[in-house]
Amino acid sequence: MSLDMSQENSAGLMWPIQRILQDARQEMNTPVVLEEPLEIVVNGLSIATLMRMPGQEKELAAGFCVSEGYVRRVQDILLIHHCGLGHPAPGESVAGEIPESRNRIELRVAEQGFSPPARPEVMRLIRSGCGAADVSAMSASLPRINRPLTVPSTVLLGLGKAMRDDQTVHQQVGGTHAAAVFDADGRIVALSEDIGRHNAVDKVIGSCLFRGVPLGDKVLVTSGRASYEVAVKAIRVGLPIIATISAPTALAVQLAQDRGLTLIGYLRGGRMNVYTHARRVVNEQGNYPFPPCDVQVQIKR
What we know:
The chain is of the alpha/beta class. The chain has 2 domains: 163 residues, Cytidine Deaminase, domain 2 (3-Layer(aba) Sandwich), CATH 3.40.140.10; 98 residues, Ubiquitin-like (UB roll) (Roll), CATH 3.10.20. Helix content is 22%, strand content 28%. It contains 8 helices and 14 strands. It has an 8-stranded mixed sheet, with helices on both faces. A 4-stranded mixed sheet has the order 4-3-6-5, covered by helices on one side. Strand 10, helix 7 and strand 11 form a beta-alpha-beta unit. Helix 7 runs parallel beside helix 8. The longest helix is centred in the last third of the chain and has 15 residues.
């Protein structure tokens, strides 16, 4: 199956999926929200790389710099330059082709109004100069997931509820995200909660690492959006399958495809969308692919 990466629009990136309903499947295209890095450079110093949805890059850079204290006030910004015209925000229209150089913002700030970070710890995702994010380049230092783990769809479809049932803090006060690690039979190995979805993922991974639990044959389930950062965390520790009850981002999907990670979204309501490496999701008989549903949605090739 080939994917036309030009199927990108202001709402997101169209991606082919297999929607699995019990022991049947539908092949279809579905949009995933765009996620790209934005490097912010102030007076020649790269101070941060933000993972963001394209749109309003100048506003994002200015708001970040002022709210984080790098720039004293917006009046101290003498010039703000976007290397490329940028991507329209969802709902906005644009004439002509979408420029590729949209992931770097340069600001010139009055010296007395600039407070550079004492120890700039920048996640370097973009090459020098103005260039689009390259998933292959970004993932070059990450391992490839080659584990032949397979999990029945009926097991996977029950993991969202199993995680929710163990969210004691959320049941008491609400307002928390959760991340849980399960084995291939659907038994919960560890669960963590936090107000931040990334923190919950870090906690549950750390819990397994401290206890010596191998992760190469486990499934990570999270309540938050599957972003690039979450996909990176899973890949770095060798988790072959990550599932979220929410949506993945386009960059997470592309990274998962590149590194061999099975990425599942919308794990709720008796269904799930398998975005990448669906071979790890099998039916009750242990077979892949699934028999098709009665209604087929054809993928444009």
